[in-house]
Design goal:
Elements: H1 32-37, E1 52-58, E2 64-70, H2 72-75, E3 80-84, E4 95-96, E5 103-104, E6 110-111, E7 117-123, H3 126-133, E8 137-142, H4 149-152, E9 177-185, H5 188-194, E10 197-205, E11 217-222, E12 228-232, H6 237-248, E13 255-259, H7 275-285, E14 289-292, H8 295-301, E15 308-316, E16 322-332, H9 340-349, E17 360-367, H10 382-400, H11 404-410, H12 431-440, H13 455-458, E18 474-487, E19 496-506, E20 509-515, H14 525-537, E21 541-544, H15 562-589, H16 595-598, E22 601-604, E23 607-610, E24 615-618, H17 619-626, E25 632-640, E26 659-672, E27 677-688, H18 695-714, E28 747-750, H19 767-784, E29 790-791, H20 795-798
Parallel strand pairs: 1-14, 10-29, 12-13, 16-17, 20-21, 27-28
Antiparallel strand pairs: 1-7, 2-6, 2-8, 3-7, 4-5, 9-17, 10-15, 11-12, 11-14, 15-16, 18-26, 19-20, 19-25, 22-23, 23-24, 26-27
Helix pairs in contact: 6-7, 9-10, 10-19, 11-12, 14-15, 18-19
Length: 801
């Protein structure tokens, strides 16, 4: 049932009789104090007494044949214990991959991107390892570089994976196409002929980096049984193990994974980086091996957001009703498959945005190139599409002489509406309301610049303390955008999570222990799991065991899915524990106390009560009395969301996504039109979260996603030259927003329950990343009158020619 919208308070108090820290409250993070005091142990802090240090030698070329590798001088370097190349791999399986195993653990006959791993060195000191790696001699023969659509699809284009046999290969028009997904519904050509207004545009999105602060790192420890234990910062323990074990030549049970402290992820840790390399060296040397990337290696060693070129055509009637959409989205997947097929599926299925349009002709595809591999990043295909379709909505509004918010609201998707894939949206879709909320919020006051005011004023100007402007050429603009993002894995993927919950008496106090393999990457999953256990079991003390592979898979910490799926698994396991406890109690007490046999019972506020609230016995007392027969109650349970379907490869029709999330932004910017500088004054958001399991964490996710979208709008881009080399692999040259760039971010949080989800919740973290970017661009367009069809903006895009 749809509930009335509410604005969530950042703090809340427990209901009478409940323990603090349950669902709906702003429970404190169990790792929060350690992180803010600098005492939290990240993976890069791992240490073992007799460990070696590992370094990777990477290719300086984007595309080249490897003619020879000479490791003799490196092996002779004092302190070096091991040097490995492709020829030293222990198994016939030498490749890995999330969806398709096509990424070499170490390059064999050729390299396909700048930074591809070629050799490994383990030594007794990190500087020794680096010095030895520099002595490895590799002879290359450079090959033609595939760097864009024209070079990838040319008739004489080098084929980057000529022998590919994966399932996606059957549906592509060229071997250098990773995956292609059309979405066709209605008759877009006929509808175009009936449109009163048609607008077309070509848009470009640059390559964005996840820019997490903790570099790739881990510690591999050889085990007595011939296996290996890997302590690592990752997003998906079980998928890592599935890819690592075949390359090591080991069964999966001999590769034991333990999550270490993760300093951010945003999709960049979903693919493997140093995992196989550290394990190989540990097994070869028989000693623990630690590997930590420096910042340059991190830029080269993980996937990035797909850059994209998007061709869009929208038509509308004179009163602003959309008639049709045609679009073609070309994503640069880089050298290997990674998660490009899923990104293509998202881009195609969400290409129309949160709007009702009956006639669509959509094509999305990803290319193999010699650019850095691209894969998962927050927003996952929907970010690129949102930038284009929101720019188109503004252009349509201008052509029609309509208010841009009114045009969006007139075509807004609603519950019961139909997506271009034919899927009916069967949960709340408050697109029009979200837009209305950000528009109705009071605008920040206009500012008058006192050029003699000094530093306090200068910080607020475009260009900041660089003192580049005193406000003489600064104009203000306001822009709006709204986006739609899927939640969870899609297209028929078996998306589930596992949780093990134990309830027992410890020191006279009831304690719930929760064990999952869910990766805590900063999003607050460890907080949510404790909140759910407190709510479902009525206990105050909850212990979270470290995430590892001794419990069933929790899937990836991505796609805004962990609270939904792992939260569902914890809730399910807690429910079964509760039922086992109450059944045992009924058997013990029913003969002497009839209420135990007849009443509906619950665990609430540390007691067993009837559903009417009559207390029967404290949980601690009950566990003590049952202890001889039941010293503990333990359940391991899987939980799945409802099934989805693969999209039809020819039409894109199908129930492809389990849930949708929506967010809208209003950006207020000030632009120095003479210098091409932009200052975001305010970035307001309204988002439906279904249920704010932890209101404070929800606000943090919305603020973080909005900031990452602001970065894509104004500064974040990995620059790759036509020769395929990365030109700015550092935080000196790759800029991310700082506190001085981040404006006030007022947020309206709606809680419109999705009946298909645990507690009615909706994934939170990705949706604000979509609409923040086009909102900022729309505001700059409104201020300058320029078309601005590329993101991120550069000063030269704003200057008079």
């Amino acid at each position: 049932m749809q509930t009335q919208p509410t604005r969530t308070r950042p703090e809340s108090t427990p209901a009478d009789g409940q323990h603090a820290g349950g669902v709906g409250e702003s429970a404190a993070r169990p790792d929060g104090t350690l992180k803010v005091t600098g005492e939290f142990a990240y993976a890069s802090d791992l240490w073992h007494e007799d460990m070696l240090w590992a370094v990777t030698l990477r290719s300086p070329h984007a595309h080249a044949r490897i003619l020879a590798v000479d490791v003799g001088e490196a092996l002779a370097h004092p302190g070096v214990q091991c040097v490995l190349t492709h020829d030293d791999l222990p198994s016939r399986t030498t490749v890995y991959g999330l969806e398709v195993a096509d990424t070499p653990a170490l390059a064999g006959d050729r390299v396909r991107y700048h930074g591809e791993p070629v050799a490994l060195v383990a030594a007794d000191h990190p500087e020794t390892a680096r010095s030895a790696a520099a002595k490895i001699r590799v002879e290359y023969e450079q090959l033609p570089v595939v760097h864009d659509e024209s070079t990838a699809l040319a008739t004489d284009a080098p084929l980057l994976h000529p022998d590919r046999t994966d399932g996606h290969a059957a549906h592509v028009p060229h071997p250098n196409v990773v995956h292609r997904q059309p979405v066709v519904r209605g008759d877009a050509a006929a509808a175009a002929a009936r449109a009163d207004v048609v607008v077309t545009g070509e848009y470009e999105v640059g390559m964005q980096d996840q820019a997490f602060l903790g570099p790739e790192s881990g510690l591999a420890v050889p085990a007595e049984d011939g296996g290996v234990e890997l302590y690592v910062a990752t997003q998906w323990l079980h998928a890592d193990r599935r890819q690592i074990a075949p390359v090591l030549g080991l069964p999966e049970e001999k590769v034991r994974m333990v999550l270490s402290g993760v300093g951010g992820a945003f999709g960049g840790r979903e693919d493997l980086s140093m995992q196989i390399h550290a394990c190989l060296l540990a097994l070869h040397t028989g000693r623990p091996v630690k590997m930590v990337y420096n910042r340059e290696e991190s830029f080269l060693g993980h996937v990035h957001r797909h850059p994209a070129v998007l061709h869009y055509e929208h038509g509308a009637t004179a009163d602003g009703r959309l008639t049709h959409l045609k679009c073609r989205i070309v994503l640069d997947g880089g050298a290997y498959t990674s998660s490009s097929p899923a990104v293509v599926g998202n881009a195609a299925s969400l290409a129309a945005g949160p709007y009702e349009v009956e006639n669509v002709d959509i094509e999305a595809l990803a290319l193999f190139t010699n650019n850095p591999p691209c894969g998962a990043m927050r927003g996952f295909g929907a970010v690129q599409a949102c930038f284009a379709y929101e720019a188109q909505m503004d252009r349509l509004a201008a052509e029609l002489g309509m208010d841009p918010v009114e045009l969006r609201q007139r075509n807004a998707l609603r519950q019961g509406g139909t997506m271009p894939t034919g899927q009916v949206v069967d949960s709340p879709a408050p697109v029009a309301e979200l837009l209305g909320r950000v528009r109705e919020r009071p605008l920040p006051p206009e500012r008058r610049w006192d050029t003699g005011a000094g530093g306090a004023e200068l910080r607020e100007l475009p260009g900041g303390v660089g003192n580049t402007t005193h406000g003489e050429d600064v104009v203000r603009g306001v822009g709006y955008a709204v986006g739609i993002k899927n939640v969870g894995f899609s297209e028929g993927f078996d998306d589930y999570s596992t949780a093990r919950v134990r309830l027992e008496l410890v020191g006279g106090e009831p304690v719930a222990t929760v064990h999952t393999a869910a990766a805590e990457v900063g999003q607050g999953g460890v907080t949510v799991q404790g909140q759910i256990a407190r709510t479902e079991l009525g206990v105050e003390r909850v212990v979270l065991q470290p995430a590892d592979t001794t419990v069933g898979s929790a899937g990836s910490t991505s796609a805004s899915r962990q609270t939904y799926v792992t939260g569902g698994a914890v809730r399910n396991a807690c429910t079964q524990v509760r039922e086992h406890l109450l059944d045992a109690a009924r058997r013990r007490y029913a003969a002497t106390e009839p209420v135990w046999a007849s009443a509906a019972l619950q665990l609430h506020g540390g007691k067993v009560t009837t559903t009417e609230g009559r207390p029967l016995v404290g949980i601690a007392q009950l566990l003590a009395e049952l202890h001889d027969e039941h010293p503990e109650f333990t359940v391991e349970s899987e939980w799945r969301h409802r099934p989805t379907q693969p999209f039809d490869p020819a039409t894109g029709q199908g129930f492809g996504h389990v849930q949708y999330s929506f967010a809208a932004h209003r950006a207020v910017v000030e632009v120095d039109t003479r210098l091409g500088l932009v200052k975001v004054v305010e970035l307001a958001c309204a988002q439906d979260v279904g249920k704010a399991v932890n209101p404070q964490a929800v606000l943090g996710q919305i603020h973080g996603g909005s900031t990452q979208g602001l970065g894509l709008a104004l500064m974040e881009e990995i620059l790759v030259g036509p020769e395929g080399t990365v030109r700015n692999p550092s935080f000196t040259d790759y800029l991310i927003p700082t506190v001085l760039d981040t404006p006030p971010m007022p947020v309206d949080v709606l809680e419109l329950a999705d009946d298909h989800a645990p507690y009615g919740l909706r994934g939170v973290g990705e949706a604000p990343t979509l609409s923040s970017t086009p909102a900022v661009l729309a505001a700059v367009r409104q201020a300058t009158g320029r078309a601005l069809r590329r993101t991120p903006l550069r000063p030269e895009h704003l200057l008079e020619v």
